[in-house]
Amino acid sequence: MTQVPTQDAQPDQRDSTLDRNKQTVLAFYQAGINEKDFDAASMFIGDRYVQHNPRIADGIEGFRAFLDQLRTTFPELRAEVKNIVAEGDLVMAHVHGVRVPGQRGTAIVDVFRLEEGRIVEHWDVMQPIPEESANRNGMF
User: Fold this and answer.
1) Is residue 2 part of a domain?
2) How far apart are CA 104 and CA 25, in angstroms?
């Protein structure tokens, strides 16, 4: 009798890929967003890069222009990944972004799609952190 492999047949390999994808996204944040180092960050981007943020162009040159704008407009911007989850070829990061030190910042959810260990697609949703909240739960 021949056994048909199930999706759970190789959990260690799948978990390893998910962990690598999360580490890729974390390294991308550090190099690209926090250090604003295009050369270092571009190592984590695939040959094609689809951007769903309407203010950023597709492709590696769109990402370069985005980093140039960050470097000029918000040189002290920092992003702290609070939570990161991977499933399939997607990695979701819940991020606290602060453009200027001392400001409350923005709650961000970034979703990345990876192929062969490189980022090939990106979506994001951003919400400014309000001065007052109807609850004490915080945004992170």
Assistant:
1) no
2) 24
DSSP string of 1-34, one letter each residue: -PPPPPGGG-HHHHHHHHHHHHHHHHHHIIIIII
Q: What is the pLDDT of residues 104-134, one digit of tens each?
A: 999 999 999 999 999 999 999 999 999 999 9
Q: Per the domain annotation, does 6 fall within a domain?
A: no
Q: Could you tell me the CATH number of the domain that includes residue 96?
A: 3.10.450.50
What is the C-alpha R_g of the chain?
Answer: 17
Element (H, E) at 62: helix 59-73
Count: domains in the chain: 1
Inside any domain, residue 140: no
In a domain, 123, yes or no: yes
